[in-house]
Amino acid sequence: LAQRLVRRLCKACRVAQALDEAQLDELAEQYLASTPDSGSSAREQQVARWRGQYGDAAGQLVRWRAVGCAQCEHDGYHGRLGIHELMLSDDTIRQHIRHRAPANEIRHSALAAGMRTLRQD
Hints:
With 121 residues, this protein is of the alpha+beta class.
């Protein structure tokens, strides 16, 4: 288990910026960097999932940015949010641990089994 606290954008003053194709491709590449399948087809599939899940009716995605107002004391942030990474131990991971496999091998198996990293969360 790993966890971090990140600053939450102020809902009163945050500003949406539309993401273009290059930005979406870069985000998908970063998101998939630690996964076993990070090719261009995987990036395209991930962007399509994001468009369907988080996009507007036209599939447009936005990134929010901090501005600052009186409610957040002109900081742009208000409160904190916890992000988590949890590795569940399956038979493969337990076997790696028993055989004292390198950490990157254990991580690779966990990612293949569906673990989401802190960056992905």
